[in-house]
């Protein structure tokens, strides 16, 4: 099946500095695809190249087979997006914003505008000026404008910025139903692993302008960070040795009697049994949900993220 | 395309830019009318005194006196044919005042409208247009809304073109607003239309001599049409320049600042370095196009209507070319 | 719906305006360009050129007495309700005295200063008139001197010296140019009168007297020219002789000047 979005060797140089270093990934129809990376990794730059705001120095971006650089109009006819903050014309009402944008696309009538307004729950405030909106309301209106044209591909840049926890939950449900019920393909960028884990099927991870891994989200989640604290500090080297020799794991010595490593659930009981047998006095063992930093540590072998 | 243009017009209307301009015009034209009225009263007094009568009430006598004087001059065999032509035009104008019972010492709506545009075409009108056009692109970059419109399935040149056409439409509204406001205010102040009055056009200065061989009269309404058309042309040129600057820089205040300083700096430069040929090609020294038809003297030697229009048109087309090339190619990073 | 109306209204206004401005701009261009290229016929000009004035071949008269009036607003007759000034009155007075017809040619321009008079004398046709004139009446210098009075007090002394010097040089040149075409004509210069006799120590009065004296001294070098003093004429009659502007003479004032000129005219 032809991918909805495909990037091939996309590179961007600005004033001699290579900012995006040859990115390849593709998103298949109906997928919710996560685009994960810390702030400044090049996520927004890549998204801007996908929607044609920035022209790549080299490489190809195609949307449903249409090249963004060569047939911009056909490519963009498939795309709805919010890039960074949902910027809108503050001096107009929300409704007039939607009306204005609808006139730039074919086939959006007033009925459709009312439909999307209802979908994002903005019926009551849509005729007020945007300058009176909270960030959350602007975010909803931003989603409304992106959905208005029934896009094949929806691109959301850090969508949960400015939403309250209830709003985030609502938003997740909306995204999931768009993909499931309407067959929409969705690309979401985020610097929060948890967000990606909760919404996406597949993820591309970007760091320093390099794509370091693409994977299924459930594959990422299996490892988790486990911390052992030993009673006697002199037993720490023994713990490290056991982990290395018997399980092939590089563990981290925190220097205060704690040692941490990434372990799959099913191996933990075995490891603990080995420790006890070796006479290690464990004070406690706990597991931590893996955060993005840990994931990058793992993926890049300890290289710190800038 | 029509919808895109409508969008751009609506944006400016919603921004209340036109209302701001109308308010500025209202205040300024009001002041101008007040000043004009004051000057006219003073002039009436002075002219009456000079003609040796106590007040200007008896303006018919004043005109008759002048007509007699002109007649005497025209019969002077020692005055050249061109000199007589200009005297004759002047006499014709005076005769019109007499025949139509128009007091030439009073102002009229038509005269006021013409004078206001003549006075504003080289500085005030351009400032208004800069206010209108200075943020058409940079404003959207500032607020980030440029990302909204550039991610629609519309090519970039169409977006800039629709902004240009919207600007051209709004410039028309500004010019008509000037006409309307000055007409209404001067009607209140002077209470006389005077659109049929003759106006003298076609003076030319060659060297220090005034050549009057092409002098003729046309009715006020026709003169106004020309003066306001020139105003519109100037507005178009300034609009193109502002649009280009607005594409080139990121921020609205910088864009408006650049345009204003080039406008004012340019006229300074031409004032101090009149002899320097390059100053003739600055857009600012060529803005005072109405002077070429109303018969004022030339500001800078070697300038004329054809030259100035060509230079201005060159600036407009050049800046459009640059604006379109840059706009269609540039990356939106902000 | 309402929005649509606004939009179509704007479009209508725009196109209506555009059409009239295109016409207007075309007209403006044709007038403006015609002005800069006078050699080409102006057939495209929107307004009809003036109907050609019937060219009554004005033959330059050689018979009779011809009077030239030159200079500033006094020679023009400003302030005279009848518009005649002293020049016309002198012409009339002379007509009663001599058997020949008398014609006056008035070239005076309001506000003229001495250097402008020199420029005016460059005109060949005007020099033709001077050549044929029997009497030349000149009123000049009043505007030169008045410019000094408008300066700040501290600058006035120096400015006066300079103005008087320039004025006298100009006057010398005026006389020389006139004499180069006409040796015989009687040239009469009208002296300056005071606008403020009540304060005899005022600086302005001192300037005025020095000015008149300078003029008179210069005219001594030419035996067919004369200064017609008006200083004494207006001294006790300022109220009667000045017009409402407090600057120019009225009808009575001009009449008095004219009488004095007529008295001084040689036969």
Q: How would you summarize the topology of this molecule?
A:
The complex is a heterotrimer of chains A (306), B (334) and C (267).
Chain A: E1 5-14, E2 17-27, E3 32-36, H1 43-50, E4 58-63, E5 66-67, H2 72-76, E6 79-82, H3 94-102, H4 110-119, H5 135-147, E7 153-157, H6 165-182, E8 185-190, H7 193-199, E9 202-207, E10 210-216, H8 217-221, E11 223-230, H9 236-247, E12 252-253, E13 258-264, H10 265-277, E14 282-288, H11 292-300
Parallel strand pairs in A: 3-8, 3-9, 6-7, 7-8
Antiparallel strand pairs in A: 1-2, 1-4, 4-5, 9-10, 11-13, 11-14, 12-13
Chain B: H1 2-14, H2 17-50, H3 59-74, H4 81-99, H5 109-120, H6 124-133, H7 138-143, H8 146-150, H9 156-190, E1 198-201, E2 204-206, E3 209-211, E4 216-219, H10 220-248, H11 252-272, H12 290-294, H13 305-329
Antiparallel strand pairs in B: 1-4, 2-3
Chain C: H1 2-36, E1 65-71, H2 73-76, H3 85-97, E2 102-106, H4 114-120, H5 124-132, E3 135-139, H6 142-149, H7 153-181, E4 186-190, H8 203-219, E5 225-228, H9 231-235, H10 238-241, H11 251-264
Parallel strand pairs in C: 1-2, 1-3, 3-4, 4-5
Helix pairs in contact in C: 3-11, 4-7, 6-7, 7-8
Give structural notes.
- Chain A is built from eleven helices and 14 strands.
- The longest helix of chain A is centred in the middle third of the chain and has 18 residues.
- In chain A, β7, α6 and β8 form a beta-alpha-beta unit.
- Chain A is α/β, with parallel strands linked by helices.
- The relative contact order of chain A is 0.13.
- With 334 residues, chain B is mostly helical.
- Chain B has one domain.
- In chain B, 69% of the residues lie in helices and 4% in strands.
- A two-stranded antiparallel ribbon of chain B has the order 1-4. In chain B, strands 2-3 form a two-stranded antiparallel sheet.
- The model of chain B has no long low-confidence stretch (mean pLDDT 85).
- By secondary structure, chain C is an alpha/beta fold.
- Chain C has two domains: 43 residues, no CATH class; 200 residues, Rossmann fold (3-Layer(aba) Sandwich).
- Chain C contains eleven helices and five strands.
- In chain C, β4, α8 and β5 form a beta-alpha-beta unit.
- In chain C, α3 crosses α11.
- Chain C starts with a helix and ends with a helix.
- About 7% of the residues of chain C have low confidence.
- At the B-C interface, α1, α2, α3, α4 and α9 of B face α1 and α5 of C.
